Amino acid sequence: MNLSIKQAADQLGLTPSTLRYYDKEGLLPILKKSKSGFRTFSENDLQWLNLICCLKNSGMSITEIKHFMNLCLQGESTCEERKEVLERHKSNILKQMETLQNCLCIVNYKIDHYKEIGIFHIDQ
Amino acid sequence: MNLSIKQAADQLGLTPSTLRYYDKEGLLPILKKSKSGFRTFSENDLQWLNLICCLKNSGMSITEIKHFMNLCLQGESTCEERKEVLERHKSNILKQMETLQNCLCIVNYKIDHYKEIGIFHIDQ
DNA sequence: ATACTTGTTAAAGTTAACTTTAAGTCAAGG
DNA sequence: CCTTGACTTAAAGTTAACTTTAACAAGTAT
Prior knowledge:
Oligomer: homodimer
Shape of chain A: flat
Strand content of chain A: under 5%
Radius of gyration of chain A: 21 Å
Order of helices and strands of chain A: HHEEHHH
Number of strands of chain A: 2
Strand order of the largest sheet of chain A: 1-2
Number of helices of chain A: 5
Largest interface: A-B, 42 and 42 residues
CATH topology of the largest domain in chain A: Multidrug-efflux Transporter Regulator, Chain: A, Domain 2
Distance between the termini of chain A: 63 Å
């Protein structure tokens, strides 16, 4: 049931290069290799990579993701800190959504009215 | 009523360097300079910069913003194309919001349940 | 056995959006 | 007049997150 790097990349919508890069950066410490040196991706690896993608797509940096992962590796004792990291990231996401909502309003207004509120005099 | 580069930067939450960079990239073609060569920011400039910030904060690249600005400079004849640019950007914003909403759900779930669904075996 | 595809590493290259540096100009206060 | 602080330019430097390259090894199809 283990996938090759290409298969895993396809499932995740990433490229093999990106997966190698993540591995090199230490984001995939649980990854195993076949005896000939090929990376093999288990269901567990894919789940962890899905979480990585989620965090990355919502603006968490590789460095921060790695920090979070290190906390996970340390086990029970870091539960509180992990929760705090996620809470902070949650506020971050909410802030981004607010910013986007704001921009959306402005863009919507422009779409409906840009003839009347042109920025340049030439555009008024 | 015209502002210095520092004053304008403060109003916009940017740095003077960033404004110079935008100017250099051709994003501020309407900007005037005092006879001693200092940039002066009018109300109109600030409005245009606010729109730039809006587009930038919602993920439009400097290159795309410059393209949009060039359309504005060309006047009436580009109204349709400008509207299309904004419509495409609107879909882009909506897609980003959807992505964030998705990530938010996952993060919320993790916050509430991460003890039970740990990624690493050590974390279960 | 041979050719093709997929994998490996280390290291260098890319891109966007700034930021910093260096060297100089301008305006105001004492 | 002199210093101080804000401004100017051009050019080089920075950072994140990849991507590409080169040189090589392994697995698969004919």
